[in-house]
Amino acid sequence: MNHGDTVVFGNFNQEGLQYKEDKRAIEYVKDFAEFFPLADGTKISATQFMEKFGFASEQQYTPLSKLSGGEKRRLHLLSILFLNPNFLILDEPTNDLDLQTLRTLEEFLLDFPGCILIVSHDRYFMDRMVDHLFAFEGDGVIKDFPGNYTLYREWKEKEIIGNRQLAMSNPHVSAGVQPVNIKTDSNPVQAIKSKLSFKEKFEFEQLEKDMPALQKEKAALEEKMNNGSMDYDALQKAAERISSIVQLLDEKEMRWLELSEKI
Q1: pLDDT digits (tens, 9 = 90+) for 215-239
Q2: pTM for the structure as a whole
Q3: For residue 7, with 0-12 CB atoms within 10 Å meaning exposed, 13-18 middle and 19 or more buried, which class applies?
Q4: Is the confidence at residue 63, as pLDDT, over 90?
Q5: Burial level of 179, CB count in 10 A (0-12/13-18/19+)?
Q6: Is 105 a residue whose pLDDT tops 60?
Q7: Per-residue CA distances from 252 to 159, 203, 248 (Å)
Q8: Are 97 and 239 a contacting pair, CB within 8 Å?
Q9: Contact 137, 130 (CB under 8 A)
């Protein structure tokens, strides 16, 4: 692969922290650089940068072998960022990170002036960070989509409805047979419901109520988290609830798509 001479890659992968010599955490970071340049032209020291990522002064002198799994992952992440790359590749960056580190990472990435390529199953994180998707849709099809994951799912649902409506509205034509006008329902959702069993209709209607309600609850929690009025415990509970909502939404949206294809 050819790339420009000025491109500096930072690759955060799932293999975790790799080291040959057991040294103190601060020494490991300083092997990369002593200072980190900020966007305003100033610099902060390795010690200050580690503090931003939750390593208190005494923790910075902990040997690498004594760090927990989460601490090693956090140190791996900050050491990649400390290299000051202009092209970041992040593979599941939110795994095993505590809430405070996640917030620090988000703040850092929102101000990041370079290019970021993210592979993640964390929909909340992706919606906050990503503005362009390459969606692998199966059978070798890759959709180039300008938007975040939630927008992509909304577009995909509308596409399915549109395709079903188009298929229903096309008259059947064969040799010697006059075209037959097929009456279609102006409401594609209602047309779908008519093909469902009573139980499935009830489930479909409930999903249509549940998903907007969950989206509304998620948006309200995100707003509270972002306005800085919540203490740490409340933030932790809100983050856990958002994670639960994201999982619920994913399950309900997949079920909605399954039911919508029963036509």
Answers
A1: 889 888 888 887 777 887 888 888 8
A2: 0.55
A3: exposed
A4: yes
A5: exposed
A6: yes
A7: 18, 10, 6
A8: no
A9: no
